[in-house]
Amino acid sequence: MIRVAAVTENNEKITDIEISEVNFSAYKWWWIDFSEPTEEEIKQLDTSLHFHPLAIEDCIHSLQRPKLDYYDEFSFFVTHAVGAKELEQKEIDFFIGENYVVTFHHWDSAEINQVWSRLLKQEDINEWDEYRIFYEVMDKVVDNFFPIVYHLEDEINEVEENPGDKPMDVLLDHLFDLRHQLLRMRHTINPIRDLFYRMLSSHRLEGIRERREYFADIYDHLMKLSEMVASNREITNDIRDNFISINSYQQNKVIQVLTVITSIFAPLTFIAGIYGMNFVHMPELEWRYGYHASLAVMTLLTIAMILWFKKKGWFG
């Protein structure tokens, strides 16, 4: 789907036009949005808008790394949004020229839909232009990162506190899944952060210099998000190490108990083994109290070894 919004010199909004019918020079500025475009609609990037083939190729072959490319008549931006459920990266491309902005995305973008609806409802659009559109969309994209990161943070706290008293193997599986999700968020947020740093440092983007405080605010949000993701990954490292330490401690305790039991039964097995042999000439075999004596010796050995192990702290 291709939708067009144009603003006349008298600040009148026009939306009932086709891309092939747009007289671009007749408008103050215009916005064309390619939402889930077909192959025929994608061709309009070349036939109607005459964008550079490399930029068009970057649009077709997603996902590109967030970046900024300068061309003779426009600047090309590649950015990413994230699906709230799957945390899947979704590319949004911007072509920004002197009096226009073109957005391109292979999916239905809620952020762009919100800005589009707001533009159409806005009565006074004197302050709107191509970079205002870019700012509004990216502000929505970055703001939508926060609930995702906060949710992951809550999940990590729940794993750490374990209110449901879940088994350790279940908690570790969930923890590793959370670490994977944090990694995906880091791979989304950090490149966009670097992109905004480059934008703010550029001397060729007049529209961004005019709204530097707004784009700097988005950059600050990205810095905060990046720090939150890094901090939460460190927390998951600590939780993982604690789980592994606890698991090793429990295994050592089990091994210690088994060692004590083995040590106690070793001499008992030795005595039973000796008197289980079938030699004829064994003096104790014909002794009337031999059976009771052997049991008494085994009992005394067991008690003595238990007391000795307890004194050594093997049961603590």
TrEMBL record:
SUPFAM superfamilies: CorA soluble domain-like (SSF143865), Magnesium transport protein CorA, transmembrane region (SSF144083)
Organism of this sequence: Sediminibacillus albus
Subcellular location: Cell membrane; Membrane
GO MF annotations, alphabetized: cobalt ion binding; cobalt ion transmembrane transporter activity; magnesium ion binding; magnesium ion transmembrane transporter activity
Physiological role: Mediates influx of magnesium ions. Alternates between open and closed states. Activated by low cytoplasmic Mg(2+) levels. Inactive when cytoplasmic Mg(2+) levels are high.
Gene responsible for this protein: corA
Reactions that this protein is recorded to catalyse: Mg(2+)(in) = Mg(2+)(out)
Name recorded for this polypeptide: Magnesium transport protein CorA
CDD domains registered for this protein in UniProt: TmCorA-like_u2 (cd12831)
GO cellular component: plasma membrane
Membrane-spanning parts: 254-277, 289-309
Family in the record: Belongs to the CorA metal ion transporter (MIT) (TC 1.A.35) family.
Recorded superkingdom: Bacteria
Keyword Transmembrane carried by entry: yes
